[in-house]
Amino acid sequence: MSPTESGHLRRARLRHFLRARREQITPEEVGLVNVERRRTPGLRREEVAALAGVGVSWYTWLEQGRDINVSEGIVNAVSNALRLEECERKYFYRLAGLNPPQRTEGHRCDSPDARMHALVEGWAPNPAYITDRYGRIEVASRSARALFRIDARGDNCVVKFFTEPSTREKYPDANEVGRGLVAQFRAQSARFPEDPEFGRIAERLCECSPHFAALWDCHEVVGPNQGMRKIAHPQAGVMVFDRLVMRVPENPESLLTLYIAQPGTGSAERPRELVGSHSGVG
């Protein structure tokens, strides 16, 4: 993809993102009196401009995705007006062609090193795996392969979730899981604006999964999502895990996901049995 094409794509994403966020905020939320009936939901462009302290024409050009210079101060002002979360702000920074303020993530390596492999396998009997920038499995422990029915390398977590009904059925809270996967995938795509593979994956999924297409149109973004994860297993029942996600230090493009079985659940009662059985990845 040429720099010109990359710029067009980035500005198109910026246009959709700002409009989606603007339409999700009510006038009452930002202290405006809603005295008239509105034809469209959310705030108007002139209201966002006033809240951010910028000109209406300038904000309109920004939301239209025009090729204009955007400063860090403007991004922060608009972020405040739209009440963006930290991850959404970073996404906005990247779409505006700026580097978000953050600590240096280190140098990229071609693949997770031997220590990460050892950590993943040594996490047994609890599952662990490492994914690349697209959500594809790079390394997976034996327990993760058995529980999630994934290959040691190559399966894409996002694609698997939205194209295999048997994968979605494993999650009692499948709607929440799917929403998080899409929002994280979109945030990842902004970190690599010149990589066309994100667009190809999204296009294929939009064609074959109306569920993915609807979530993709929401333009939600989150960082590596963690917290509790419930997984239904035919022998152990509903297993409950605490889930920790972090970037691999030597290769910040990759994400390490660790599961810890909560006491008193099916997962905690019979974790070792699951390793020997075959029961997507979330």
UniProtKB/TrEMBL annotation:
Where would you find the membrane-spanning parts of this chain? none
Q: Pinpoint the HTH cro/C1-type domain residues.
A: 17-89
Q: Which residues form the signal peptide?
A: none
SUPFAM superfamilies assigned: lambda repressor-like DNA-binding domains
Q: Which domain of life is it from?
A: Bacteria
Return the InterPro entries for the record. Cro/C1-type_HTH, Lambda_DNA-bd_dom_sf, MLTR_LBD
Q: Which PANTHER family match?
A: BLL4672 PROTEIN-RELATED (PTHR35010), BLL4873 PROTEIN (PTHR35010:SF3)
* Protein name as annotated: Helix-turn-helix domain-containing protein
Source organism of this protein record:
Streptomyces katsurahamanus
